[in-house]
## 1
Amino acid sequence: MARRQRADLIDREAESAAEEAPPVVEEPVAVALEPAPAPAPAPGSEGARQPPAISGQASVLDMQRSAGNQATCRAIDALTVEEEETDDPQHIDQAIQRDPDGGAAPADAGAVAGAAPLAVPVNLKQIVTDWTPGPNKYGFQLKFHCASSSGSVADLQAQAPALTWREEVTYSRNDFAHRITPSNPTILPPGGVSFAAAKTTVIGPNELEFDGVTDTHWMPTSAVRQADFLPPATRSLPAVMQSEQKYQFSTDGATWTDFAGPFTLRREFAREIGPPLPGQEMYCSFTTEKVGIHTVKETYKP
């Protein structure tokens, strides 16, 4: 009996303790999660990885500029780069090309040297610029436009840097040889002038302008001296320098094909009717004529 009472007492104490104890609350367990990988950007989106830019080779003209500056020192009918001043008395017909951005035009990966051209230059236009010769020169300056045989000048630009053009000059007469003697023939610039889009401007669907390219037909006054044609000198007037200019294209820098010309360039120092002007022994003039293109007649500059 006493044992049963003691067991009942223990059970009642346990029940009382259970009722008084606070409820058990489970604490949340922190779980470290791996960050989900970011989705790959869609092709063409800003975040997409871009392929590295491909830099093209320099144009033939730019690669040969340094050599050309030395090799052209004796040329007077010449395509040369613009960095050369038109004060060298051997450069009296200077067609020059200025690089507008100081760098070479990118190469066209599709252009293959020596491949048959898809289109060729035609209808070369020679346009007079506003250049003036000043007191120590005679002459004038031209710039160039051309068309494409395909009807679209984009077909010419697409062939850069393989497709280039140049000027070839041959001299048939030089009455000023005692003072100035150009190379004969004169062929410049080395490698030719570029058709690259970076060096040309599309004037129309089938008209292309060569940026910074000019042909300066000039003669230094130091090569034209009146005293050379006065007695007792045996030289007679009119004194003439005459040349033929052809424009040629190439797709490999080795084989050149005429696409314009020949144009006759005639320089003439002649006596005029009338009394001499101050500083002159006789009244004379100097004429620069590119037949069919442009003519300038100037009074003799002592």
## 2
Amino acid sequence: MLYRTLWVFCCFISSLYAQGTQALDQPFILAHREGKMVLAAFLEASGCPWSQRIKEDVLSSPVFLEGLKAIVVFTSVNLCHETNRQRFQDLFHIHELPLLILFNGFQEEIARWGLLTLDPKDYIKKIQLAAHSFEEIGAFLRQPHLIDNPEKIQTLYMHSKLLSSSYYSEQILQIGLEKDPGSFFLLEQYALLLKERSLKDPRIQQIRKRILKKNKEKEAELKMAVLEFEALSAKAKNKKRINKAITPLVEYIKKFKITGRDHVWKVHLMIAQFLFSKQEVKQAQFHIQAALDEAPDAFKANIKSIIDSFCQGDLH
């Protein structure tokens, strides 16, 4: 087994070398030897203020380097030579710089980050969380029978979304659908299918019925209405589609106007914000006024300020 592992690793290093990415050879060899991950910073060699900024503010910080040295081998790659640059971009799907990519010892990408408005300590937290989540999720998928707590599986699922590959979230979703007696994973599956299928699709309707059967509370219907709105609003390019997009939210308001007043005003506000973004001012004004009328007194001042900002935007 050890011989095969070393053989695979050597083949990987040879592959990197053949593709002209020798700059990563040593970090991966060292990471494999020490049981660590590789954190690679891809930077523009010159003329990029953002690469210079992350280099000076984060990557050169002793706090950053010290905080991660226990789990990663850090390397910085300046992309300058045109041929070499293209090879890196093609191999690691680099579309903008600067870019940080966290790999395991065999070049599997774990997570990536561009330039964020974070200090070194906050970058460390993000990288540590991704590294820990990757290890924890891998252990869970190898032995899923060891964890039956639905909340723990939900946490692992949410953490899997931090990772670059959708493989992990897809696997946990399937396990969650089997183990979770609630509607959390059904709602996640519903959201994913809405990106691919229409609301009338039999599969969509089947899951919808299962969610309502498991959870008859109005919160479940609200979550479905919001998911349907989000899916439809992405395609709202004309007035007909705009009205179609808000239909799930409008239907929710009609159904729960009396029993769901704690949520109805928020739904009106969501509709108003969307309609204003589509320049449907009259419709938006109706819903923003409804939100103001329905909202608890503690929120009325905030809604009035939103109305003022909308009006100013409309005037300009």
